[in-house]
Amino acid sequence: ATVDDVAYKAKQVSINKAFAEMTMLVDGSELKTLVLCGDDMTTCKSNSDVLKEKDNIGQVVNVGCPMMKDYNEFSEDAKDILDSCKDHLEKNLSMSLDKD
Predict the structure, then answer these.
(1) What pLDDT does 37 receive?
(2) Which residues, listed in sequence order, are joined to residue 59 by a DSSP beta bridge?
């Protein structure tokens, strides 16, 4: 494994541990949690799997903006990409809330 691979895995373990510890700060059961993923939905799934293992978590919703991959705030279409991401997040959050 490369140094970058080892550093990435260490960072991932830290994130997973933080997620697990955060669930102890909230009272209740069958909690619905939201994980904002950015553009890396694979890593996000790994993080949310840690949450799903907790007894007080009922549902985990992953949301992200795949269109933000390689985003350049100075590009001509930067505003359009941000607007698209905003619309995408609103739609996914609304669909998630409608399931209740």
Answers:
(1) 77
(2) 32
